[in-house]
Design brief:
- The structure is a homodimer.
- By secondary structure, the first copy, chain A, is an alpha+beta fold.
- The first copy, chain A, folds into two domains: 287 residues, Aminopeptidase, CATH 3.40.630; 130 residues, Alpha-Beta Plaits, CATH 3.30.70.
- Chain A has 14 helices and 18 strands.
- In chain A, the strands form five sheets. Chain A has a six-stranded mixed beta sheet, with helices on both faces. Chain A has a four-stranded antiparallel beta sheet with strand order 11-13-9-14. In chain A, strands 4-5-18 form a three-stranded antiparallel beta sheet.
- In chain A, strand 1 and strand 2 form a beta hairpin.
- The radius of gyration of chain A is 25 Å and the shape is elongated.
- Strand 11 of chain A pairs antiparallel with strand 11 of chain B, so a sheet runs across the interface.
Chain lengths: 460, 460
Amino acid sequence: MSHRQKALEYANTMRESFLEQLKDFVRIPSISTDPEKKAEMQAAAEWITAKLRDLGLREISIIPTEGHPVVYGECQCADRPNAPTVLIYGHYDVQPSEPDDLWKSPPFEATVRGENLYGRGASDMKGQVAATLFAVESILKNGKMPVNVKFMIEGEEEIGSPNLNSFMESHKELLACDVALNPDSGMIAADLPTITYALRGLAYFELRVYGPEHDLHSGLFGGVVHNPAQVISELIAGMHDQDGRITLPGFYDRVRPLSEEERAELAKLPMDEEYYKRQTGVPALYGEKGFTPVERVGARPSLDVNGLYSGFTGQGQKTVIPSWAMAKISTRLVPDQDPAAVFDQLKQYLMEKAPKTVRWELIQMSYGAASISDIHHPATQALANAFVSVWGKPPVYKREGGSIPVVGNMQRILGVESVLTGFGLSDDNIHGPNEKLHLPTWYKGIQTLVHFFYNYGEQG
Amino acid sequence: MSHRQKALEYANTMRESFLEQLKDFVRIPSISTDPEKKAEMQAAAEWITAKLRDLGLREISIIPTEGHPVVYGECQCADRPNAPTVLIYGHYDVQPSEPDDLWKSPPFEATVRGENLYGRGASDMKGQVAATLFAVESILKNGKMPVNVKFMIEGEEEIGSPNLNSFMESHKELLACDVALNPDSGMIAADLPTITYALRGLAYFELRVYGPEHDLHSGLFGGVVHNPAQVISELIAGMHDQDGRITLPGFYDRVRPLSEEERAELAKLPMDEEYYKRQTGVPALYGEKGFTPVERVGARPSLDVNGLYSGFTGQGQKTVIPSWAMAKISTRLVPDQDPAAVFDQLKQYLMEKAPKTVRWELIQMSYGAASISDIHHPATQALANAFVSVWGKPPVYKREGGSIPVVGNMQRILGVESVLTGFGLSDDNIHGPNEKLHLPTWYKGIQTLVHFFYNYGEQG
């Protein structure tokens, strides 16, 4: 029996043990946003280091940051010199569990019902982190690793990874690798193995429009003052044209066009108009003309008003001309848009369009670049072939509309591409009550990762 | 000496006494919105009835309503049969005094500093009610009245007069009269006696736009969902055209055009662009093309967003596509617009313009008709001539942009026109701290009212 076969068999026989170990990990309420949970955060970090120690990895440490620490460990122990190195990214922190009364079993009890393990973090992403550990274990217990691996498991993903960039900046050599494996992105469905190859970036703003010095009586002044709530509405309305295109000057100049190959690939995804209507409950979809819904979400930029406020918003009526109005506005960006340039484009738009009847202010809140990886990258191919081995079919390639800033930040800081996948499903209810992990998919995921390491080792 | 002369002289010699009596009235904290002030409301009502009793009026009573009572008293005692009857409208309630620490002397102490009496209600409108009582006193102490008078002094004006309409409905005969005198409208400046001959009406709505069933992740759905905050902005933006005209279908159909005579009259008011810029602090005015600011505020309808709300409005950022958006929208109407028709016009606009990507709801909050009175009405002429006698010049005629619903309601319920005037000044700071009454203007006001009653008696 080949080494690979032995590892796969090991993984199969260890199912019960893997599940029990994962339950222990899920039982730790490592809620990063809760200042009362410092000890639990430490416990979760220690659970991982104990596991890394069992596997015989080196350089194992819980490295402090200004916030929660990063767990590190490596195995520079490939079966041949010059084997490639995979940096495995993950996070050990979880979202708060509230509202607890909506959970059918306590969120930190790790309960199996039917084919699923229920518990906060089971899917996002303790199950995914554990799957990488168990895949590495399956290989090491039966011989040498086909690639070198490094683990970088952070504790602040659910609060926006405020200290990860500086951690990566100051540990560039330690983290040197050929590719990053990020299993924090899930599968569209249990029968649709999925590789996410692109993520949208984000640029977030607050726009404020100032009119009269204080709220005015709408009878005494209605007709001579340009109402700031009206002005902000006019400005927002002008940010899209009739075809649903964003009008900020130069906004599309650097948008990377979709290739025919990509469009054909995206067309395979089971996410048509009906899918999005079902997901959102809207009576009809909206968006940029000339693109399918899945293209609009994945491969085209968008601009949304995330919040709007002006004047009197309580019960009943108050006849006031508000003195100011506010909008939270964010853009989702695609390669090769520059988030910093979008600030200038929005500013330019406002300079051209804002009337002389008001004053305005544009506040930049945050930004992160989009990322895209080559689906012909050797690691992506290794993963795709792994999916074929386990699922009997190639994965779908998905562009993700959301933003996972660590991917772009790794590209920028470490100069490394990420392969994004994962064995969570879209109905896992991550961040919500009754989060679950589909165990048959998870077991197949461990097998897939075993294949991935071998495939990449052979190719690399 | 004529009877008129004697009355005027009496008013002159009684200045100190009138002031002392007014101070007593102002000292009563008759705050209608404060449930703790029931006794003080009663005391203010009794202060008036005591005064009416001193004057020898008849049918004096404090008539209960569902809220605060109405004070009534009449003098069907004109010097000749068939003399006209003037219904004097006023209110004895005042606004709360908060914030008290901004008052230089306690709000219910009635303090004279320089030429002014300071105290809550001194200008709005205890001083005005008292002026009518003292004018009637001046006449009655020196002979018979040239007209019949009826006093209807309510206690709920500052809380929107919720019970006055039903009071008028059920007391139509008691309140029968030839004209109403409403001294709740002030003067533009101490040297500009002012008659307000038109008031704008009001129609108030809440518009709600519903999109997805719950807030969405703006990354996962940005580009396929029509954001309700964007939709409401587009709808609001479309409610005015490039010339500042309101686009609701049929909105201007019944707007009574301004006559050349009126435009000439309004042009005399010292309320130019600079005036409105100073009053509001806006960098530039806005409004319907082809009309001066004072015409736009007084004689043209307006539409304002009074409040706007959607999504996340707190500190920081949240990348959400809001599930709904809300706008409070009100229109100020002019003769002969029908407030009920405006609801249909706004609904029609929404049916035509709201996209199929959302659901919407329009809630009618309240409405009141505009009112306008003939400046050639005998009572208006009588008042204008009275101003000439006291100020040495005719009054300016002003259209008021705000709404005083009692005027339209009296027209509708009692079938009677109102003459609106008053001796408060625009810098009296009514509703604010340090409300004051300019005493030299007030004394001239009492003289003016004496002339008015004689003039109207002679004409009527």
